[in-house]
Amino acid sequence: MKTLFSIFVPVIFIGFILSPGLPGNKSIQKSGSFYTAEAKKVIDSKCYGCHSEQGRSKDAKEALMWDSLPNLTKSSQVATLDHIIKVLKEKKMPPEGVVKKYPEMKMSPEETKVLQSWAESMADNLLKK
Ligand code: HEC
Q: Is pLDDT of 84 > 90?
């Protein structure tokens, strides 16, 4: 019984860490016009679960919170958008291990394009202001 317990707990724990980000009824809270409908759809289904209050990884939350991004200073927004563009170009997000376990989390080329061009034009606009 004890052995069973010591196997189960880590398995459940790891499952918890990896499960956020899966599609569910999670969505960016208040975003105003910051996110286009297209970009929001991709974020909600592929990124929001980890990079939001629901996220269970402290690292993910420290790296990016979609709900607070619109309220950051202009320079922090541009810096974050640059990081987003970079991870999309390098196909670093969602993390490889998660995509392996949950193939539905894989970004399609269209989704990558939508999110990347949103981030690029957002960063451009911020720099012009
Ligand atoms: C399963 C959880 C998970 C999902 C889903 C996820 N991320 Fe992440 N993300 C993380 C973690 C954990 C980190 C911090 C560790 C790291 O950088 O690898 C991170 C870091 C980042 C960073 C900072 C990287 C850097 O180099 O500064 C960005 C930007 C990012 N994620 C964007 C995204 C985008 C965009 C998506 C959706 C396409 C996404 N993430 C989906 C877990 C996730």
A: yes
Centre of ligand 1 to C-alpha 93, Å, is 5
Instruction: Give the residue whose CA is nearest to atom 35 of ligand 1.
Output: 84
Model confidence, pTM: 0.84
Q: 40: Cβ below 6 Å to ligand 1?
A: no
Residue 79 has, within 13 A of its CA and on its CB side, a CA count of: 7
pLDDT cut 90: percent of the chain above it = 74
Looking at the predicted structure, is the pLDDT value of residue 12 above 50? Answer: no
Shortest-distance atom of ligand 1 to CA 105: 5
Residue pair 116/89 in contact (Cβ under 8 Å)? The answer is yes
Query: In whole angstroms, what is the distance from residue 24 CA to residue 70 CA?
Result: 23
88 near 82, Cβ under 8 Å? Answer: no
